[in-house]
Amino acid sequence: MKIYWILIVVCILLSMALSVFIQVQQQLIITMNNKNEKFTMTFKKLNKQLSNLDKVKVELVRLTVFAQEETKDLEAQPVPDVDKQKQEIDACRAEKKTKADELASIKQKHAEIAANLKSESDAWEQEIQSLKSHISGYRPICDHVKNVPLAVKLCGTKNKPVDKGEKAS
Hints:
Blueprint: H1 2-76, H2 82-136, H3 149-155
Helix pairs in contact: 1-2
């Protein structure tokens, strides 16, 4: 009779351990999903910033081309007031230089954001892969679980064949 009581207690303990294990796995899945959502939001935010910077870059390039065309037009026109024209040309060149500096700054920010996004993306991908491998791996506790489809799904597959005599009662 003692053997039955011991067997019942062992079964209850194993059932409790298995339920705790399943809850921990569910928490890991929830955590992974939350991290994935945060990564997606960050990616969208950075992508929006990147598109805004691209728009600014296009506008600056357009303004630079416009400034170059205006400079050529001013240089081509014979003007009786040369000093005034020289001042305007100098002002245009100074503006062109500031726009070129802004463009260089934006290109640098673009490169930094792209590098940052790439590094974060790689880090998240590594984290996701490690969590997937951890969740999908076979655990020794699964040797003591009944051969139920849900338990088999949660435990994964075992590389060695299972003996028919090792099934839990």
